[in-house]
């Protein structure tokens, strides 16, 4: 009996020392976090558990944490100002009902989800959900798909290739935001995606979703704004010169979708046949002559 009591005594001591060590580490971690960051983080995620804190030489700070739904997440600050939060969502049921409904009612509603991520950014009011899964594209099975949906259920776009990790791009260009605000007055920026090195902003301008592409980050860059494209829905009016060129050059071509493309090189129409395996398309300049 004495040996058994001694064993429990040692076990209790070990557990107690472990608790002390954990508390010491937690207290040390709390002390490392600047007051401004700690205050902002607590206000945003009051029931979360901080796991690690990193302070980088370029003014960036990173907190890894577990949110109140037990999801793994990371948050970044630049000079103590919040910039981005990236969360790995463990279950589609955690999405807002409107976002769930949008996905379930899409052509991919029966897909087996591999990953779901939520990205929140400074300067963008709506959260961006990325749903990753494999699905057949045309005749090719198991193609990687990434669907982007806002928390209010707005379906933004689908990629059949892998975009760059949003966590690589903590700070977005102020010149990008200024350009969009000036050129597309009243537009809402709904999401940012880095697409093979290009900066793609998805905006809601009136009732139209537009995709704004930048190559540069500073307005004085040689190539700053690349183009803006958006689909023309319904009975779009195509200029006579464009229609004539399309009929002259491609009399047998049938298209399913029309896009309008704005750029410094001149605006153009893009006609695409999405029923074709290769989704063939034709660009025709707005001012081209037959």
> Which percent range fits the helix content?
10-25%
Oligomer: single chain
Strand numbers in spatial order across the main sheet: 1-2-3-4-5-6-7-8
Which architecture of the domain at 91-160 per CATH? Roll
* Main beta-sheet strand count, sense and barrel state: 8 strands, antiparallel
Strand-residue fraction? 35-45%
N→C terminal distance: 102 Å
Instruction: Name the average pLDDT.
Output: 91
> What is the H-and-E element order?
HHEEEEHEEEEHEEEEHEEE
Summing up helix and strand content along with how strands pair, one would put the structural category as: alpha+beta
- Using the alpha-carbon principal axes, give the shape: globular
What are the segments in which pLDDT stays under 50 over at least 5 consecutive residues? 16-26
Rg over CA atoms? 25 Å
Put simply, the count of helices is 5
DSSP summary, beta strand count: 15
Task: Describe this structure as you would to a colleague.
- The chain is of the alpha+beta class.
- Among the domains are: 91-160, Roll (Nuclear Transport Factor 2, Chain: A); 240-285, no CATH class.
- It is 24% helix and 40% strand.
- The chain is built from five helices and 15 strands.
- It has helices at 2-32, 35-44, 97-104, 174-183, 240-249; strands at 49-55, 60-66, 72-78, 81-89, 113-121, 124-137, 140-150, 155-159, 188-195, 198-205, 208-214, 225-231, 257-262, 268-272, 281-285.
- Strands 1-2-3-4-5-6-7-8 form an eight-stranded antiparallel β-sheet.
- The longest helix is centred in the N-terminal third of the chain and has 31 residues, at 2-32.
- It is globular, with a radius of gyration of 25 Å.
- It starts with a helix and ends in a 5-residue tail after the last strand.
């Amino acid at each position: 009996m004495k040996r058994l009591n001694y064993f429990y005594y040692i076990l209790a001591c070990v557990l107690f020392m472990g608790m002390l060590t954990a508390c010491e580490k937690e207290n040390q971690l709390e002390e490392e976090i600047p007051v401004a960051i700690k205050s902002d983080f607590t206000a945003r995620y009051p029931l979360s558990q901080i796991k690690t804190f990193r302070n980088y030489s370029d003014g960036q700070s990173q907190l890894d944490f577990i949110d109140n739904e037990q999801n793994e997440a990371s948050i970044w600050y630049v000079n103590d100002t919040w910039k981005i939060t990236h969360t790995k969502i463990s279950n589609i049921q955690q999405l807002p009902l409107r976002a769930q409904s949008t996905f379930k009612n899409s052509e991919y509603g029966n897909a087996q989800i591999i990953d779901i991520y939520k990205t929140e950014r400074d300067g963008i009011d709506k959260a961006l959900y990325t749903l990753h899964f494999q699905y057949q594209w045309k005749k090719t099975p198991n193609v990687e798909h990434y669907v982007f949906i806002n928390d209010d259920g707005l379906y933004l776009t689908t990629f059949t290739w892998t975009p760059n990790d949003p966590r690589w791009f903590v700070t977005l260009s102020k010149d990008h935001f200024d350009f969009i605000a000036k050129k597309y007055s009243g537009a809402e920026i709904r999401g940012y995606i880095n697409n093979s090195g290009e900066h793609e902003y998805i905006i809601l301008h009136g009732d139209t979703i537009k995709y704004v592409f930048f190559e540069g980050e500073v307005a004085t860059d040689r190539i700053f704004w690349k183009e803006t494209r958006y689909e023309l829905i319904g009975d779009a009016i195509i200029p006579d010169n464009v229609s004539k060129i399309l009929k002259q050059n491609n009399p047998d071509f049938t298209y399913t979708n029309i896009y309008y493309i704005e750029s410094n090189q001149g605006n153009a129409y893009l006609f695409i046949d999405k029923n074709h395996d290769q989704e063939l398309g034709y660009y025709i300049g707005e001012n081209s002559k037959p």
